[in-house]
């Protein structure tokens, strides 16, 4: 077996990399130890958000990525439920509202569209929303996809070029390097694959793959749960969340943090998510989390008190100490590229990630500066 | 609101009733939680059974004991209550429960040193064209309509699927005045192993049961069509008949043998699936039961791999009502010992009961060998036949998920929505596995992991007290 590039991980990030590489003319083998979307992609939501990002490299990546998502959806038809519904961030107290308005101002200067919504206008966007809120900001660029369908159909699109192969139940056990230290092959449970290039799209397990190639990458799990309600007729029209969310995402607190993002799905269920905890890989449901998410959701939408929780699910977000993903060539190992560590935004950022990975592999000019996402930035000796 | 006991028993079928009585007789504080509005479970609920005044370990005696123990406040019996989750809190287990009125926030958290899981099983349906027509229902559904609500599902009914419970359902329907057009059995128990069956059942009351059902069928001249299967239910707005065919040993229809039976209701059942959500939430080790379905692993004391969690009855493998009762007795005795009480069952009585458990388990294994589910049922589904009724997922979408790279039931669910709805895959898991050819225990387990067993209002959860 051989390929121009072996992509490790069939999550949403690996899928976007596979499609972009195959479209760019490279021969691709995608390997996953489980099935498509069997990692974090199968345990998360599909929000593609610009609203929660502060000005900086991640916001630039997110803005590029949402446009690429819209293009991919156009090219692939409605196979993954892309819904450009927009996000509504609300504030329950006036200090939070002032903070939110300042935050929106800064975002606007970077190309984010943010429309201030006065308290009395909230009900026009969301008729069932709490009357106790002081105001909000509407972000029309926020979208959502069904991430598992997206991963599956993007890999399918890559395969349709005739240049990509998917190998499931295929665990990577080693990465071979030649005398010069460059990638020469990927060893798997289904045999060895000769290649000069590896894309590490193993998400939360990206550190393990890096170690197989002989380098360190500090990626850790951050657990999250999502509540799913019984199906209802459409009642929540946008992604709605309380402004504290913005503060939580960047927090370094190891304990439980939740801020309910509430959204309807095409199936009629309402998703309430998600919590953020650093507790390793323990998937046991924490009922304290359920209580908090329920309370927060009811504060924003009081009618939810009478709506039933049908099920919960969750996963482990891949996070790096500085909460930025790792994207691009690893100067320590020629031929190794990373595309992992996207934490709670891997779906949103996947399209741009695949796009720049293909650019890096084909030597095309990069759409975005990758320095902030450099894999070697965590080395003690690295001065950035 | 939060309460506490030595032993919480979940499910008041034969297993749960037996376990509660032994544990309470041994001096444990017992809380018995059950969905139904009276004890008895799948088999005895609704049965006209006068609880026996005498002591003993047959079901009527146990039911009488339970009544007295409840009246004496030795058992805190909570009918119309569902345990929706089980969670560990240090040495103790917490049972989260909700009442049956979704508009009242009657939730509770019950702490217990030992929990006995006796949640029984539910019907295993398999799809065929027309199976979603009104009038087509599961055997358990038909049974509870008749026994519970005294309503006949129809006037002329076809009972189909496989297993001895087809005979039980048919007998119940006949007793209540319905006409049974035929019992359509996909296996061939008579040629297969009637001798083996008789050998197993000699000396057991169960053989008497089966004999009674068969006699009832003969008396009403109901045809028992072995090696036959429904290939399609017919009708526009409701079922008006079924097309049946003779099948080979793997359930593939034999061409040219199709014919139509007219009827206005159909009861189908292909065995049962153990109700294991709560055990799975605590990560209890699972095995395959004798019928190939998932079961919680228990030792001779009915202890699971999770400290403090015992299991009895159908949860440990589909075995029938007598196996459930005797396993419940053992579990009650173990719970007593775990709560530092002397067991009300003497060592010699316990020994006797253990031997009965082993005998009933052998009997069950014999039944399952006689009434397996074979792959040939897949032949009759069409691309547009619904697999998952809750989310209206047809066969074609399930197959598409496999083409997209799904290799287990969980991924099929994520890519097709089969199993994401109200019943959380209870009704379609077996069908998905059969359609996709999934056969490993990991796939079964992945699909049956349900962190919330039954829906609970968010308001009730938000109002929960903060423990600890
Ligand atoms: C509760 C929750 C909510 C979320 N909500 C959102 C949201 O709204 N929007 C958003 O953008 N993001 C969200 N996320 C984050 C998002 O899900 C992740 O960032 C994203 O799925 C990561 O995708 P990935 O492809 O990098 O990783 P994964 O999907 O985890 O894929 C990695 C794959 O690598 C495979 N793998 C690992 N090791 C090996 C090996 N040795 N050999 C072969 N294969 C291997 C794994 O099997 C896995 O399939 C959420 C996450 C959680 C947990
Ligand atoms: C149609 C039909 C005919 C049958 N005929 C025969 C027969 O002739 N002979 C025979 O031996 N067996 C027969 N059986 C099987 C028999 O009913 C079972 O073997 C027996 O009921 C098993 O007892 P159990 O205590 O394990 O479970 P069950 O009787 O199923 O009791 C379980 C109880 O737990 C409750 N429960 C479940 N989940 C929860 C929860 N989360 N919270 C609270 N309560 C819960 C249920 O409501 C139920 O009351 C038949 C079954 C059916 C459906």
What can you tell me about this protein's structure?
- The complex is a heterodimer of chains A (384) and B (468).
- Chain A is of the alpha/beta class and 384 residues long.
- Chain A contains nine helices and 19 strands.
- Chain A has helices spanning 12-23, 57-76, 94-108, 122-125, 147-160, 206-212, 244-249, 287-300, 346-362, and strands at 5-8, 28-31, 47-48, 87-91, 115-118, 135-139, 143-144, 164-167, 172-177, 183-188, 191-194, 198-200, 220-229, 239-242, 257-264, 270-276, 308-319, 326-329, 336-340.
- In chain A, helix 1 packs parallel to helix 5, helix 1 (12-23) packs parallel to helix 9 (346-362) and helix 2 (57-76) crosses helix 9.
- Chain A is globular, with a radius of gyration of 21 Å.
- Chain B folds into three domains: 3-122 and 273-345, FAD/NAD(P)-binding domain; 125-270, 3-Layer(bba) Sandwich (FAD/NAD(P)-binding domain), CATH 3.50.50; 382-443, Arc Repressor Mutant, subunit A (Orthogonal Bundle).
- Residues 199-205 of chain B have low confidence and may be disordered.
- The radius of gyration of chain B is 22 Å and the shape is globular.
- With 468 residues, chain B is of the alpha/beta class.
- In chain B, a hairpin with a 4-residue loop joins strand 20 and strand 21 (393-394).
- The structure holds flavin-adenine dinucleotide (2 copies).
- One flavin-adenine dinucleotide is lined by residues 8-14, 31-34, 38-41, 43-47, 171-172, 201-205, 224, 226, 273-274, 314-315, 317, 340, 342-348 of chain A.
């Amino acid at each position: 077996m051989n390929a121009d590039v072996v992509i490790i991980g069939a999550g949403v990030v690996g899928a976007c990399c596979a499609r972009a590489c195959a479209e760019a003319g490279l021969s691709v083998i995608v390997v996953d130890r489980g099935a498509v979307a069997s990692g974090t992609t199968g345990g998360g939501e599909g929000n593609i958000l610009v609203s929660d990002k502060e000005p900086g490299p991640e916001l630039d990546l997110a803005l590029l990525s949402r446009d690429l998502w819209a293009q991919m959806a156009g090219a692939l038809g409605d196979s993954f439920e892309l819904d450009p519904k927009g996000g509504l961030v609300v504030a329950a107290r006036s200090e939070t509202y002032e903070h939110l308005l300042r935050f929106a101002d800064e975002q606007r200067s970077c190309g984010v569209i943010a429309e201030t919504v006065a308290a009395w206008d909230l009900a026009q966007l969301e008729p069932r929303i709490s009357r106790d809120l002081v105001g909000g900001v509407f972000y029309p660029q926020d979208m959502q996809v069904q991430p598992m369908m997206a991963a599956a159909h993007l890999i399918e699109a890559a395969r349709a070029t005739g240049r990509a192969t998917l190998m499931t139940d295929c665990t990577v056990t080693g990465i071979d390097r030649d005398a010069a230290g460059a990638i020469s092959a990927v060893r798997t449970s289904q045999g060895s694959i000769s290649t000069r290039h590896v894309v590490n799209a193993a998400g939360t397990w990206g550190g393990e793959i890096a170690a197989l190639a002989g380098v360190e990458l500090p990626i850790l799990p951050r657990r999250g749960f999502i509540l799913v309600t019984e199906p209802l007729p459409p009642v929540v029209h946008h992604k709605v969340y309380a402004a504290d969310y913005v503060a939580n995402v960047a927090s370094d607190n190891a304990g439980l943090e939740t801020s309910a993002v509430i959204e309807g799905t095409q199936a009629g269920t309402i998703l309430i998510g998600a919590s953020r905890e650093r507790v390793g890989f323990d998937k046991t449901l924490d009922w304290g989390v359920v209580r908090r998410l329920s309370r927060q959701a009811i504060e924003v939408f009081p009618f939810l008190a009478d709506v039933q929780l049908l099920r919960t699910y969750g996963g482990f977000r891949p996070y790096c100490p500085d909460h930025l993903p790792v994207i691009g060539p690893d100067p320590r190992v020629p031929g190794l590229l990373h595309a992992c560590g996207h934490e709670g935004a891997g779906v949103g950022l996947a399209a741009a990630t695949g796009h720049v990975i293909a650019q890096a592999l084909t030597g095309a000019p990069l759409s975005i500066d990758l320095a902030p996402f450099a894999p070697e930035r965590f080395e003690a000796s690295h001065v950035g | 609101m939060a309460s506490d006991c030595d032993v919480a028993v979940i499910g008041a079928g034969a297993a749960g009733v037996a376990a509660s009585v032994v544990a309470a007789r041994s001096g444990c504080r017992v809380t018995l939680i059950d969905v139904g509005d009276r004890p008895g479970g799948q088999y005895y609920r609704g049965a006209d059974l006068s609880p026996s005044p005498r002591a003993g370990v047959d079901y009527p005696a146990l039911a009488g004991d339970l009544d007295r123990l409840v009246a004496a406040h030795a058992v805190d019996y909570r009918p119309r209550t569902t345990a929706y989750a089980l969670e560990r809190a240090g040495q103790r287990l917490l049972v989260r429960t909700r009442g049956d009125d979704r508009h009242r926030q009657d939730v509770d958290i019950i702490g217990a040193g030992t929990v006995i899981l006796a949640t029984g099983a539910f019907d295993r349906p398999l799809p065929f064209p027309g199976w979603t027509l009104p009038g087509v229902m599961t055997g358990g559904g038909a049974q509870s309509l008749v026994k519970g609500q005294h309503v006949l599902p129809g006037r002329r009914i076809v009972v189909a699927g496989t297993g001895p419970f087809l005979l039980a359902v048919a007998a119940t329907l006949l007793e209540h005045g319905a006409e049974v057009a035929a019992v359509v059995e996909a296996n061939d128990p008579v040629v297969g192993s009637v001798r083996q069956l008789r050998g197993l059942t000699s000396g057991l009351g169960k053989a008497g049961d089966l004999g009674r059902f068969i006699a009832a069928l003969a008396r009403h001249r109901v045809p028992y069509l072995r090696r036959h299967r429904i290939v399609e239910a017919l009708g526009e707005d409701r079922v008006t008949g079924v097309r049946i065919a003779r099948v080979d040993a793997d359930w593939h229809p034999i061409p040219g043998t199709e014919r139509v039976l007219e009827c206005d209701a159909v009861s189908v059942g292909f065995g049962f699936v153990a109700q294991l959500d709560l055990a799975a939430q605590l990560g209890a080790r699972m095995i395959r039961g004798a019928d190939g379905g998932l079961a919680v692993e228990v030792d001779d004391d009915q202890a699971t791999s999770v400290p403090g969690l015992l299991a009895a009855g159908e949860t440990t493998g589909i075995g029938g009502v007598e196996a459930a009762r005797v396993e419940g007795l053992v579990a009650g005795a173990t719970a007593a010992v775990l709560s530092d009480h002397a067991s009300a069952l003497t060592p010699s009585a316990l020994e006797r009961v253990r031997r009965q458990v082993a005998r009933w388990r052998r009997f069950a294994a014999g039944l399952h060998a006689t009434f397996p589910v074979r792959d040939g049922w897949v032949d009759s589904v069409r691309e547009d036949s619904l697999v998952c009724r809750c989310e209206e997922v047809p066969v074609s979408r399930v197959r598409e998920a496999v083409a997209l790279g799904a290799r287990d039931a969980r991924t099929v669910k994520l890519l097709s929505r089969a199993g994401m709805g109200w019943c959380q895959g209870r009704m379609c898991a077996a069908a998905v596995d059969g359609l996709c050819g999934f056969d490993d225990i990991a796939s079964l387990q992945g699909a049956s992991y349900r962190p919330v067993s039954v829906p609970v209002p968010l308001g009730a959860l938000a109002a929960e007290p903060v423990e600890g």
